[in-house]
Amino acid sequence: MGKSRAKKKREHLLRNGGRDVLLSRGSTPSFSTHERKTKSKKDMLNKQNKNPYDHTAVDDKDFFVPEKAA
To answer: 5 partner at 20 to 30 Å CA-CA among 33, 37, 38, 43?
Structure first.
């Protein structure tokens, strides 16, 4: 495979006394950032069954009913 254009530019800068841009990159974390947890069946069903217009669902807040001023 050939070199990318960006890699060629980085090498050219190094040859001509430029700054090494690889030094400014951050260190990699000690954990893998690519590990993902698949959703369980319960999570998938909860996401699937949520309906914003379902007023029969049990909710802690009463959005449509204003509180009475005491």
So the answer is: 33
Dihedral, 49, 54, 57, 60 alpha carbons, nearest 10: 110
Q: What is the pTM of this model?
A: 0.35
Q: How far apart are CA 70 and CA 55, in angstroms?
A: 26
Note the helical H segments in the chain.
5-15, 41-49
- Which positions ≥6 away from 2 have C-beta within 8 Å? none
| Radius of gyration of the CA atoms of the chain, in A | 28
